[in-house]
């Protein structure tokens, strides 16, 4: 296959049927906008020019084009007068274009580069002036139907709205994806009329014009799953589910264990190494990577997070985190941007970490908040400990050396440093630096007042009274209630 001279993407329509403020092609599935998926497929053609026709929400659509395909340019179609008009508008920007031009709509996110390449290759091999990508649809409602002669030659495409009852029985549809000879297409576009139910210039009508002029039109059949257009949110959901299934299947074939395809969402931008495992109800988004031997899930949602070899991430939400090899995360853990867990570190249940490094072998096992902290190796952070990093105005750093033991419920009031091998006593508020090797105790001394409860007229815990003497109003009698009932 040679490289086409141009690709034209039609993305000016509002997508009225989406009932959305957002232009249709910017709706997202599996980590990209509809337009982003399409541009990823067209880029495999390596066309000399890619033009995206924009109209509705043009600024937002143009921004997406710049991000997804920086080499592409946008051309504005002020009024949406039909798919034929849109292509005419694009070709006006390329007055000297010759050779093959590929036209695609912006709303077919499942289309693959391989199918586009097959379309161009067959178009060139047949020497046709136009080749239509078609598909047989179980339910062709809404699509243009492909009309063929008795010999199977393509005669034209008739839109659903303009079709007779008999034509609507045809289940081969035009996908709005074509390869054209640019010169012949330009000529035909100039001859389109608006003589149809919608009063638009239909690109589909060029096919009948070619046939009337004795030109050869080809057709290439694609799989139904790949070419379904997204026109409403139900179809958006269908496309998302199909893309999810396809993406996960590809990872399974490449050696990743995905336990439940239906409840696993993997963005197309994610990278997984063979022999990692993804447990059910897991979503992997953005630039997330998972290394060999790691297990993610069940119930985890990772965005732009890297998971090292052999790590385990259970029931966690991680955004912008780096999880080291053999590290353990979860359950019910929230790792935010800038979290680095080094090798074999642990972030356990009900732990939130932000912009902090937890050194190799260090553990934050239970109910902690760690923010703006650097924790050395082999540290244990006792349950309920917190870095108090915010004074109401500024964020401050906490430094904890190697081999430190932070007692349960320690409040580390930043800025503060705890030296190597130091200890803090449980329940301490640490407001000053703790030198290496020392024990810091920052809490009130316990006072014990003997006989206090009896003087208040209360029973002591150990002198349990026989059930019949206990008042049902007594709040301390709960342990005896079972016996009374
Ligand atoms: C179109 C085809 C139909 C085909 C179907 C496949 C026509 C007339 N109909 O119908 O035969 O079966 O796609 O999905 O071509 N657009 C513009 N400018 C316009 C009009 C549309 O840029 O003036 C863009 C839209 O944004 C969209 C694409 O062209 O991305 C297709 O338009 P849409 O309205 O979705 O066409 P369908 O009714 O689906
Ligand atoms: Ca469509």
Which ions and ligands are bound to the chains? uridine-diphosphate-N-acetylglucosamine, calcium ion
Query: What is the percent of helical residues?
Result: 10-25%
Distance between the termini: 86 Å
The structural class is: alpha/beta
Q: Mind summarizing the main beta sheet?
A: 9 strands, parallel
Assign an overall shape. elongated
- Poorly predicted regions are 468-485
Number of helices: 11
Taking all Cα atoms into account, the compactness measure Rg is 33 Å
| Total strand segments | 41
* Average residue pLDDT: 94
- Strand content is 25-35%
Strand order of the largest sheet: 14-17-20-23-26-29-32-35-38
Describe the structure.
There is one protein chain. With 485 residues, the chain is α/β, with parallel strands linked by helices. The termini are far apart. 21% of the residues lie in helices and 28% in strands. It has eleven helices and 41 strands. The strands form eight sheets. Strands 14-17-20-23-26-29-32-35-38 form a nine-stranded parallel β-sheet, with no helix packed on it. It has a seven-stranded mixed β-sheet with strand order 5-4-1-6-10-7-11, with helices on both faces. It has a seven-stranded parallel β-sheet with strand order 12-15-18-21-24-27-30, covered by helices on one side. It is elongated and about 105 Å long. A hairpin with a 5-residue loop joins strand 8 and strand 9. The site of uridine-diphosphate-N-acetylglucosamine has 28 residues, from strand 1, helix 3 and strand 10.
């Amino acid at each position: 296959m040679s490289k086409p001279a141009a690709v034209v993407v039609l993305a000016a329509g509002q997508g009225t049927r989406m009932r959305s403020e957002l232009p249709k092609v910017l709706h997202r599935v599996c980590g990209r906008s509809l337009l982003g998926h399409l541009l990823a497929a067209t880029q495999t053609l390596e066309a000399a020019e890619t033009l995206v026709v924009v109209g509705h929400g043009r600024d937002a659509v143009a921004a997406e084009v710049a991000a997804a395909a920086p080499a592409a340019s946008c051309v504005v179609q002020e009024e949406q007068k039909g798919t034929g008009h849109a292509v005419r508008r694009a070709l006006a920007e390329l007055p000297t274009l010759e050779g093959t031009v590929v036209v695609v709509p912006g709303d077919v996110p499942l289309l693959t580069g391989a199918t586009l390449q097959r379309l161009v290759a067959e178009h060139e091999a047949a020497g046709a002036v136009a080749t239509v990508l078609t598909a047989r649809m179980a339910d062709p409602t809404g699509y243009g139907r492909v009309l063929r002669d008795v010999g199977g030659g393509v005669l034209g495409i008739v839109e659903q709205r303009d079709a007779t009852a008999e034509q609507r029985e045809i289940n081969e549809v035009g996908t709005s994806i074509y390869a054209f000879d640019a010169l012949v297409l330009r000529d035909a576009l100039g001859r389109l009329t608006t003589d149809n139910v919608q009063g638009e210039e239909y690109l589909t009508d060029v096919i009948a014009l070619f046939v009337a002029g004795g030109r050869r039109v080809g057709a290439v059949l694609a799989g139904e799953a790949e070419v379904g257009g997204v026109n409403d949110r139900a179809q958006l959901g269908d496309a998302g589910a199909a893309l999810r299934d396809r993406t996960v299947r590809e990872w399974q074939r490449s050696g990743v264990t995905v336990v439940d395809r239906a409840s696993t969402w993997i963005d197309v931008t994610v990278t997984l190494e063979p022999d990692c495992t993804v447990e059910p109800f897991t979503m992997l988004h953005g630039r997330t990577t998972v290394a060999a031997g790691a297990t993610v899930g069940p119930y985890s949602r990772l965005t732009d997070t890297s998971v090292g070899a052999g790590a385990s991430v259970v029931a966690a939400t991680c955004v912008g985190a780096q999880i080291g090899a053999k590290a353990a995360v979860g359950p019910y853990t929230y790792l935010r941007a800038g979290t680095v867990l080094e090798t074999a570190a642990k972030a356990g249940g009900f732990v939130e970490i932000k912009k902090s490094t937890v050194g190799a072998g260090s553990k934050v096992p239970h109910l902690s908040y760690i923010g703006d902290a650097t924790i050395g190796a082999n540290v244990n952070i006792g349950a309920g400990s917190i870095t108090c990093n915010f004074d109401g105005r500024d964020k401050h750093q906490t430094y904890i050396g190697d081999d430190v033991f932070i007692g349960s419920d320690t409040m580390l009031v930043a800025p503060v440093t705890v030296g190597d091998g130091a200890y803090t006593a449980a329940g301490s508020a640490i407001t000053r630096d703790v030198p290496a090797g020392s024990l810091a105790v920052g809490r009130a001394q316990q006072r014990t007042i003997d006989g206090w409860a009896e003087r208040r007229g209360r029973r002591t815990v150990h002198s349990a009274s026989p059930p019949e003497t206990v008042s049902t109003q007594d709040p301390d009698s709960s342990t005896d209630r079972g016996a009374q009932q």
